[in-house]
Amino acid sequence: MPEPPARGAAELSLVVTTVGRPADFARLLASVESSPAAGRVELVLCDQGADRACTRLLEDSGTGVAWQATTSGRGASRGRNAGLRLATAGLLGFPDDNCWYPTDTLDRVLAAFAGDPGLAGLSGQQQTVDGRGSMLRWLPDPGPVTRTNFMRTTIMSTMFFRRGVLDEVGHFDEGMGVGSSGWYGAGEESDLLLRVLDAGGRVRYDPGLVVLQDETRNDSDTTFERKMLRYGCGNGHLWRRHRLPRRQLLWYSARKAAGVAVRTARGQRNLARADLAYLRGTWAGWTDRRPADWPEGAGS
C-alpha cells in the first residue's frame, strides 16, 4: 500500500465521512490540492463504504496532501468522531464528500483564525457554481453567529473550529445525523455549534468565505421526501434539546408551509411533498413522537 505524505505539520484537519462516492470525493480532493494552503492541510477520511473505494482513490492518487484513512460503523456523526480521533491539527473542518473549495477558501480560513486568537469558530456560505446560495437562505452580511441566526449562517460544510474548543464541549452526538441509529436525521452540526456558543465560544460568519456544493433540491424525488422527513425530525429534536425560541420555530415552519402552497400551485409537487414531510418531521422531533409512518426499528 502506498504511504501517505508525512504528517505532523498540518494546521487544518479536514475530516470527511463518505459512503461510496469516489467521484465526488475526487473533486473535493482536487480542490484541496489546488489550494495554496494545501501544504498546511491534512485530509482525514472515514470511509464507510464496503469496498473502501475512496480509500483506494487516495492510495492511488499520489497526492501531495497529507492524509489518513479509517473506517467506522455507519453514520455521519460516528464517522466524524472516528476521524477526529486521528486528526492532528489545531483547526478542524468537516466538508461533505460532495462539496469542494474555491482556490482561496482554505487560505482565508487559516488567516481568519491566525488573525483572531480568541475566535472559537468560523462559518462561510455554501453556494452553487453559479453563485446561488445552496441549502439555506443565507444572510447577506457578515457578523457573529448566534442562537437566533444559526439557521441562516451555518451548515456543516461551511464550519471550522478550534480543536481545543470541540474537545472541551464534546464531539458529535452519534444519535443525530444522517445514518444514525436513531430517527433524528439531522441537526448534529447545529447541536455541536450551540454547545460551543453556550460555553461562551465566539463564532463568526463570513459570507465571502465560499464552499461549493450542488443544489440537491433540483433533483427531488420520493427519496428526497423521505430524507426531508428525517431532517425535520432532527431539527425538531434540536429545538427541544436546546430550548430554542418557540416563536422562531413557528416562523420557520410558517415559511415552510407557505412554500408548500406556492410549490403546489407551480406544479412542483415533489418539492411541495418534501417540504410537507420536513414540517411533519419537525413536529415529531419537537414533541418527541416518532412519525406514525416511520418503520419500526429503522434508523436515519
From TrEMBL:
<dbReference type="InterPro" id="IPR029044">
    <property type="entry name" value="Nucleotide-diphossugar_trans"/>
</dbReference>
<dbReference type="GO" id="GO:0016757">
    <property type="term" value="F:glycosyltransferase activity"/>
</dbReference>
<keyword id="KW-0328">Glycosyltransferase</keyword>
<keyword id="KW-0808">Transferase</keyword>
<comment type="similarity">
    <text>Belongs to the glycosyltransferase 2 family.</text>
</comment>
<dbReference type="Pfam" id="PF00535">
    <property type="entry name" value="Glycos_transf_2"/>
</dbReference>
<protein>
    <submittedName>
        <fullName>Glycosyltransferase, GT2 family</fullName>
    </submittedName>
</protein>
<feature type="domain" description="Glycosyltransferase 2-like">
    <location>
        <begin position="13"/>
        <end position="126"/>
    </location>
</feature>
<comment type="pathway">
    <text>Cell wall biogenesis; cell wall polysaccharide biosynthesis.</text>
</comment>
<dbReference type="InterPro" id="IPR001173">
    <property type="entry name" value="Glyco_trans_2-like"/>
</dbReference>
